Amino acid sequence: MNAQEVIRSIEQEQMKDDLPDIYVGDTVRVGVVIQEGGKTRTQPFEGIVIAKRHTGINETITVRRVFQGVGVERVFLLHSPRIRDIKIIRRGKVRRAKLYYLRDRVGKAIRVKERFDRKK
Question: Does residue 84 sit within a domain?
């Protein structure tokens, strides 16, 4: 067994298998584990997925929301133990892979059309 196979098997053990199918344009609520003192709690972060990067254990999503008039973006490592759960609120209908153009938009212009899947 060579080194690559060992690394791949260790990564496979760490990967989560209960993640939903996340696409760019979706509105998601990510439950992030926050540690304060000796206590831990789950804090939700809700926003639009504007980018997906990498595959496997290194897969990340960039989630953007506007909070009190200021755009906030967070990059989440999907298979991290700090991510408790990911819930899809809305499916977005977009025609490109990265939605960085949303950074320049304000107010109602940020809205993304909703996608209604026929199969369910």
Answer: yes
Instruction: Using alpha carbons, list the distances in angstroms from residue 63 to 1, 12, 91.
Output: 39, 25, 14
The reported pLDDT for the residue numbered 18 is 93
| pTM of the entire predicted model | 0.90
Is 10 part of a structural domain of the chain? no
Compute the residue count for the chain: 120
DSSP code per residue over 56-71: GGG-EEEEEEEETTEE
| Domain hosting residue 83, numbered range | 25-103
Give me the CATH number covering residue 53: 2.30.30.790
What is the mean pLDDT of each successive set of 10 residues along the chain, which is 120 residues long? 91 93 97 95 97 96 95 96 96 96 93 82
